[in-house]
Amino acid sequence: MTRIDFDALVALLRRIFVAHGASAAVAEILARNCAGAERDGAASHGLFRIDGYVSTLQSGWVDPRAVPVVEDVGAAFVRVDAANGFTQPALAAATPRALAKVREAGCCVVAIRRSHHFAALWPDVEPFAEQGLVALALVNSMAVVVPHGGSRPVYGTNPMGFAAPRADGGILVFDQASSAMAHGDVQIARREGHALPPGTGVDADGRPTTDPAAVLDGGALLAFGGHKGSGIAMMIEIMAAALTGGQFSFEVDWSAHPGAQTPCTGQCLILIDPARGGTLAGFTARVERLIAQMHAAGQDRLPGDRRFATRAQTLREGIPISAERLARLEELALG
């Protein structure tokens, strides 16, 4: 095991994306996103994803040079056509207009369609909380989750990301799937030979299983918390697909593109200026009061704490990476 500097990893990943057809602008955004996940210890959304990105680019399923079209449709509403490109460049294109609207109106909805999201959600919301805003992101994916009481997958893992500013200048953030486990974590479990926790998924016949291969090969995931998580997954389908004009998870069909792994769906981002409810200082003081009660109740670690600690460590010491994986990345960078 060796270590690599964050900026050096970004540069290497940028070369990979460019070598496989991405524009320089798209490559920069995707490289920073993926390297950031690896830096923060989010293995299921870091370097683990690179082979999937490359396979998808080679399949012709996604346009890595797409130029998003930003549409101003209301006092607090921005639509974005990602043009069959990746979600993050579409969000970056919409951000200046969205920030102007939230400062003017106090809130803004950003509705992105025809977009491919293959990454963690916390990078989408963290920057807004760092600017004093509350941010909620909702994304649907491909159909791999059975609705409660159902017999076949309809929903995606349908993650949500949330971030809010804190009084000390930090942020409170979480990113979680609506499924019992993230799809990438199931893939890692199969690769590493680990069983899944009971209640995670079913096999192709609808029988409960702890075998990740059975879940991935014709089976499906369950929503977390039974009917409650299933309801949240349904809501995210409506917000990320029906509202944005993106595809529902069950509408994703990449059968004509062998190797494709990035679902082309939608994302809904809601931004709120908490100062409109009084003052930013008053809002963050209330957040701190809640956190104090959480700690007093025995919760030692807040959502995001482990990632922030890992981030600080890897920025000091470098990001751990095996020699085999580093060699693989260098190989991919050759095209």
From TrEMBL:
GO molecular function, one term: delta1-piperideine-2-carboxylate reductase activity
EC code(s) of this entry: 1.5.1.21
Signal peptide bounds: none
Key words of the record: Oxidoreductase
Reactions mediated catalytically: L-pipecolate + NADP(+) = Delta(1)-piperideine-2-carboxylate + NADPH + H(+); L-proline + NADP(+) = 1-pyrroline-2-carboxylate + NADPH + H(+)
Pfam families: Ldh_2
One GO BP: proline metabolic process
Family designation: Belongs to the LDH2/MDH2 oxidoreductase family.
UniProt protein name: Delta(1)-pyrroline-2-carboxylate/Delta(1)-piperideine-2-carboxylate reductase
Biological source species: Sphingomonas sanxanigenens DSM 19645 = NX02
